[in-house]
Amino acid sequence: QVQLVESGGGLVQPGGSLRLTCAASGLSLSRYTMGWFRQAPGKEREFVGRITWGGSNTYYADSVKGRFTVSRDNAKNTVYLQMDSLKAEDTAVYYCAARTIGAENYAYWGQGTQVTVSF
Question: Where are the beta strands (DSSP E) in 1-119?
Fold first, then answer.
C-alpha cells in the first residue's frame, strides 16, 4: 500500500520558517518526480514546487520563488519543503504528491498538513 505522509505544519508568525516533511512508504521515491501543492480555504489547489527524481532540478511557483526550497533524500524516501519568510497568504493545507517519471499527472497524494501564518 502506497502512502505519503506529510508532517511539520503548524502555526508560525509572518516572517518565520517551517520545514515540511513528506515520508513515503510502499514505493521508492527515487523513481518519482515529487511535487508540493497547497490549498487555501475557498481556493483551488495550486502548485508550489517540484523536484525531479535525481534532485538535480527544481521548479517553483512565482509566489514562492526565493522563499521556498524543495529537497529530497532518496535514501530516506523523504522529500522536504523548506519555507522561509512566510506570509499570511501562505496559509493553506500543503500536500505532497508523486509523479512517475514521464507522466503528466501525479498518481499519489498525501493527506495534507495545515500551515497557518498569523500573529
Answer: 3-7, 10-12, 18-25, 32-39, 46-51, 58-60, 68-73, 78-83, 92-100, 108-109, 113-117
d(CA 71, CA 60): 12
First to last CA, the chain: 40
Q: How far apart are CA 45 and CA 62, in angstroms?
A: 15
CA-based max dimension of the chain:
42
Cell of 101: 517519471
**Residue located via cell numbers 500551515:** 115
> What residue type is 9 in one-letter code?
G
Task: Report pLDDT digits (tens) over 19-74.
Answer: 999 999 998 888 899 999 999 999 999 999 999 987 789 999 999 999 999 999 99
